[in-house]
Amino acid sequence: MAVKSTSGEPLLSNGSFDHGFSKSASLAKLLLKFLMWVLFITWAAAIYFFSTEFVHNLFSKWIKLTEGTIFGITGSIFLGFSAPILIISFLAFIYVAAFSSDDFGKKKQKFPRFRLWTFPVLVDGPFGVVSAAEFIGITLFIVYVVWAITSYIIQASNMVSGFPFPSKEKSYFMLEIIGLRLGSIGLFCMVFLFLPVARGSILLRLIDIPFEHATKYHVWLGHLTMALFTLHGLCYVISWSLQGHLRREMLDWKDIGVANFPGVISLSAGLLMWVTSLQPVRKQFFELFFYTHQLYVIFVVFLALHVGDFIFSMCAGAVFLFILDRFLRFCQSRTKVDVISAGCRPCGTIELILSKPPNLCYNALSFIFVQVRELSWLQWHPFSVSSSPLDGKYHISVLIKVLGTWTGELRDLISNITEQPQNDSEPQPNRITACVEGPYGHESPYHLMYENLILVAGGIGISPFLAILSDIIHRISEGNLCLPKNILVVWAVKKSKEFSLLSAVDLRSISPSFLDKLHLDIQAFVTQESEPPLRVRLMRTLKFSSICVKNGSCMSSLVGTGNNFWAGTYVILSTLGFIVLFGLVEVYYIKRFGIFAWWYRGLLFTLCMIAGVVFVGGIVVFLWHRSEKRNSSYENLAVDDNKKSNISMCKEATLVDETSKVNLASFQTTRYGCRPDFQAIFTTFAEQMGPVDIGVIVCGPPGLQSSVAKECRSQNLRGKRSAAVFHFNSHSFDL
């Protein structure tokens, strides 16, 4: 309501108030972003130039200035190298919570907003498809490593040349100094190693990099870090071998200084993880890779014992953020989730529909991790969601193609249950014990940022695109904000029986009026059939069975991408709890009893990190869980009615007739015995649309990604603007 003066003129209109509020919000957003950038650049610059004499002198002055606190030198180093990344995380929660990312359609962008992230620079090579932003990051890391090693070698050479030792002794000393410096460089690289693998990390949400994209950064950094640590160890091994006391040095566990034997254990665990993570080994022996990668606990703990608390505090911030994420994932994954529907489609693909709380949000580019305890208590497998959030707020669905041992056993488990007699009145309890982590994914819905979309899928890669299409069609039908107007789906499959997956999108409840606002074209290519077989014509009349399994609960909302208030409180209070605990241990135990052993102080430091998360963070998680339960109690009646409806639906689904659905097949054109010609397809689409932005999303094997990325780059060089965004699919490549 406007406030008026005595003359009847408005003193403050709603429009002017809204404009002023919007201007203040924009200013606050800009200042917050500027503060985070300043912190990050300062922190990164300190690491980047740490090998220079100037930064080293500044660091020495910083130590002298701050080591008088109760935390001592460990606190000084932690404040300089780990605290900045934690402070950025705190500010990121404020930024994400206060400034929603749902402004994708408020104004039309002349050029793609994330050009550096979506423009492919390298499409072939050891790094796979690399965007411009990723290429810049790779270059900076290579320059840093080369610069730091060169700088340290020059410094070591100048220092050793002044010693009055024999040349042989100088060479031994030179090797050990170089090994020491390689270890310090590896320690700084380890800071970035743990950041990408925190699945619900607020930092990934801040820069809008989903976990499935960030895993390749972890792989790159893992190779770099382990190469540096291996060279670090080799330098010492060679030096000790030449001096004739290799065994004594390797088994040494001294109190003052670096303890060698814990370093040997840590490096051995790291080498096992590194070797089994190489592509040939991981592809052939995935379970071996998965189980040996759990040695990261040994790697981190014994690294802390090896270097002591004050050196370990250089990378402790990133490790602490990972521990926070891992504990929250542990809490979420304890919940046994109701399986609303589980069945094998006619093409052999498994469909799981899982129960979720209405307040757990996700978007069409999200994915979840699924565990089935009847198959394995340790294995978690990621799958893209195939449902849109607008399909229903009480469920989430995934499509799973049978490719390996785990998926084959899941199919057999479901098939065996469907063949057994069931009670028609109630679902069978505990026939499939499913647990879920997530959802994770893009913070911003990239598929809604372009008026013109090309979706390229290979096989089961169509799964996330079914969610995208359903989301867009629902938005248009309901009159919600939605930019896409022209969508081309390019789908390559081996056998035409996979076309039945299109029926997973149910359009019965959607008004056909969306056809006036959306032009949809699905071009399907069958590579291993020259003509449509008879069974494909009969596929739509086939029926498939499904089961319902009641485990007693829906998915837990305890996820880093969930409630921003509780997630932020969990991170901040856990951090404060860790700092307070370490302060108490420092004052009342370490100083009081004169604890001086480096390795023991490193162990205490690590235990304080874990205790801060488990005890203080655990209290926050408990309150968070209670809050979510209390909030959901107001909707219990709706949820119960929905579950009854879902159960009824599942019973009817045991004899589902696919012809009863209005599906996406009416938009499909099929070509047999050929592969898609991306140059012709992209050029034709660009010519039809004119000089516009074209968003390209691809989901499929690495070869398909490379082909699409190469054509996107070619289109850009020809002046046809396109943006390639690569979406994760668990069946196409390993994590």
UniProtKB/TrEMBL annotation:
- Gene3D superfamilies membership: Nucleotide-binding domain of ferredoxin-NADP reductase (FNR) module
> Entry's PANTHER family?
FERRIC REDUCTION OXIDASE 6-RELATED, NADPH OXIDASE
Q: State the membrane topology.
A: Multi-pass membrane protein
The primary site where this protein sits is membrane
Question: Which keywords does UniProt give here?
Answer: FAD, Flavoprotein, Heme, Ion transport, Iron, Membrane, Metal-binding, NAD, Oxidoreductase, Transmembrane, Transmembrane helix, Transport
GO cellular component annotations of the record: plasma membrane
Q: Where in the cell is it found?
A: Membrane
One Pfam family in the UniProt entry = FAD_binding_8
Q: Which residues form the FAD-binding FR-type domain?
A: 326-446
Q: Which cofactor does it need?
A: FAD
Enumerate the Gene Ontology biological process terms.
monoatomic ion transport
The GO molecular function terms of this record are: ferric-chelate reductase (NADH) activity; metal ion binding
| Residue ranges of the TM segments | 30-50, 70-99, 135-154, 175-197, 217-238, 258-275, 295-324, 565-590, 602-624
Q: What class of enzyme is it?
A: oxidoreductase
Q: What family does this belong to?
A: Belongs to the ferric reductase (FRE) family.
What protein name applies here? ferric-chelate reductase (NADH)
Q: Is Coiled coil given among the entry's keywords?
A: no
Which reaction does this enzyme catalyse, per its entry? 2 a Fe(II)-siderophore + NAD(+) + H(+) = 2 a Fe(III)-siderophore + NADH
Query: Under which EC number(s) is this enzyme classified?
Result: 1.16.1.7
Does this entry carry the keyword Transmembrane helix?
yes
